[in-house]
Amino acid sequence: MAEAQSRPEGSTALLWTSITVVYAAIMLFPIFWMASMMVKPNDAMFARPTQFLFVPTLEHFSYVLEHGFHWYLLTSFLLCTVSTALVVIIGTPAAYAFARFEMRAKDDLFLFILASRMAPPVCLVIPFYLIFAKVGLLDTFLGLTLAYMTFNLSFYIWVLRSFCRDLPVELEEAAALEGWSKPQIFRRVVFPLLRNGIVATAVLCFIFAWNEFLFAFMLGGRAVQTLPVSIPKLITSQGVRWGEMAVVGMTALLPVLAVVFVLQRHIVRGLTLGAVKG
């Protein structure tokens, strides 16, 4: 009897495993295809029918390095890292203040902060352009960093505020009874508990900044070019350089995958924080 019951369960598990494998293969197929294009010669790339067996080449990598795309990659990485660090430094105390402290018109102020993220980027980039042109921040690394920080800060505060509200206030009250000040409570009690939520939200902000095109195109100019802005250079008068575009696309994907892989433990814990209430 027990054997008969276990067979349907095993069949169901096998069915769901097969569906998951097929779904993963469909989702990952474009990445595998782009990876093959990185080393596929041009004559094999445009051959019909499609050639799955070919002699690999590194000429696409040589073109990307000769035209300085690695510098665009470095610019993007530094820009996203610095702007995300500023978001964490400024946004963490702000989110905690919105979650714990009573202040005048707190809900209205929080809605104003959230509205800056809800607005379409094209509505914000023109005022940014005019202001930066007046104060001399146009086409500068500092100006683009501040722009990235601005549109990510509201999202960070909004998400981390929910994490702060899920923390047990009794721990902070116990620390206050011990004579700890508010900064001490935040540094020694709240911050360690928020670490996973901070990492998860910061990774999302990093990805948003990494994929940003409009602000980098309008405010960075030729002086500060990020990787997304440099990709249209591969569309030439002779046609699209698909092999080089595949190299740049895979290169743009690797830093994000590396960040998620290294911090996956904190990301999973942060995203599930507060999901189960006891």
From TrEMBL:
A GO CC term attached to the entry = plasma membrane
Gene Ontology terms: biological process: transmembrane transport
* Localization terms from the record: Cell membrane
Q: Where is the ABC transmembrane type-1 domain?
A: 73-263
> Its domain of life?
Bacteria
Q: What is its main location?
A: membrane
Which positions, given as ranges, span the membrane? 12-35, 71-97, 109-132, 138-159, 197-220, 240-263
Q: Which UniProt key words apply to this protein?
A: Cell membrane, Membrane, Sugar transport, Transmembrane, Transmembrane helix, Transport
Q: Its membrane topology, per UniProt?
A: Multi-pass membrane protein
Family per record? Belongs to the binding-protein-dependent transport system permease family.
Protein name (record): Multiple sugar transport system permease protein
